[in-house]
Amino acid sequence: MSNLKKILVVDDEQSIVTLLEFNLQKAGFDVIKAMDGITAVQLAETENPDLLVLDIMLPGLDGMEVCKKLRMEKINTPILMLTAKDEEFDKILGLELGADDYMTKPFSPREVVARIKAILRRSGQQPEKEQEANNENVIAIGKLKIFPEKYEVYFDRDRLELTPKEFELLYYMATHPGRVMTRDQLLNAVWNYDFVGDSRIVDVHISHLREKIEEDTKQPTYIKTVRGLGYKLEG
Fold this sequence. Notes:
Elements: E1 6-10, H1 14-26, E2 30-34, H2 37-46, E3 51-55, H3 63-72, E4 79-83, H4 88-96, E5 101-104, H5 109-122, H6 128-133, E6 139-141, E7 144-147, E8 152-155, E9 158-159, H7 164-174, H8 183-191, H9 200-213, E10 223-226, E11 230-233
Parallel strand pairs: 1-2, 1-3, 3-4, 4-5
Antiparallel strand pairs: 6-7, 7-8, 8-9, 10-11
């Protein structure tokens, strides 16, 4: 059985699929392909890929619907969305639906590979020895328990279904309890590069986290808004 990370590439343009397949295989990935949304969902369910490269404009189901359907089915595989539309609406909506990152066309294949590696690196897939060494690194804040080595979060004994980005954001804030962080600080720390003018991405993910960890989202216990500054996590 292959130990290569498996990437599902979904795009209805054969030239883009071929380009990505060539560069991903060259970078040491196993590649499976789909050219429509329905096939993409089926492969995501049956092939258990490590990451999806997902175009927005697809026949059958578009990329947004694919993303939404997978997240509703509790499939939290990281998703890198591709879009030809350089519009804030598309970016924010895709991230609201559970995508982890996005890139606009035209793109550099080298940048796509680098972005995929960064997402997988942040997805907590560690060598077994590292996991054993980190087994005691549990963060407890109130009813929250975060297990970094397993990429798992529990709230009052119930396991939460978080996307990779939601986990990374919560974990980063939990490692800095009580510290006020600006949106730009969180963007740089969690997304690893600068989303100029896209600070609403943080607000979207904060909102999603609050829906999952707060008993009352209007009066949050854990993730507090510090007006004019940013957010802080306390328990």
